[in-house]
Amino acid sequence: MHRHHHYAEIQRHLSESRALTDAAEAHGSLSGALCAAGSYRLEDWLAEILPEDALDGNHEAELRAVYEDTREALAGTLMQFELLLPEDSQPLARRTEALTLWCNGFVYGLGISGACDPLKLPGDAGEIVRDLSQIMRADVDEADGEEANESALAELIEFVRVGVQVIYEDLSELRAPAAAREVAGQQAGSAGEAPGRLH
Question: pTM for this one?
């Protein structure tokens, strides 16, 4: 069952665990790693974002829920994936900064496993990653007014949310176990051979 996680609450758990990053960037890195590596574990994520031996049971339970819900939302078919960002009651500049950190974490997470170079992905996935790299430099333009900036931020968040799910789908073969990819490649090779050909 997909649950909604509050940014401030997750940020508190991370801060009390002396996290090396904030909640938005941590969630971005988790999402990117789950897109690229099917074997990415909770322990792998915690090792990336927390100092060694900094986690206690209470914090681990909450971060485990974030991990499991993010994995479930990405793998699901109901488009339930959401970015972990500050609530709308927070200042616009803070929310914009959090989105840039989320995108930075996501691109970093894509490359964590070494399975792919995020900046060299082909097709739609590659184009979306390049767009995310641009969003990392997003800022509030005071000249546009608050309403225009709010609208622009909402559009960027929705673009990233949908784009991440497209990337997840595009990298499905990359997440498959190596043995399964090898078998699939052998089957494809066999299918393309002329009948009765001797080896």
Answer: 0.85
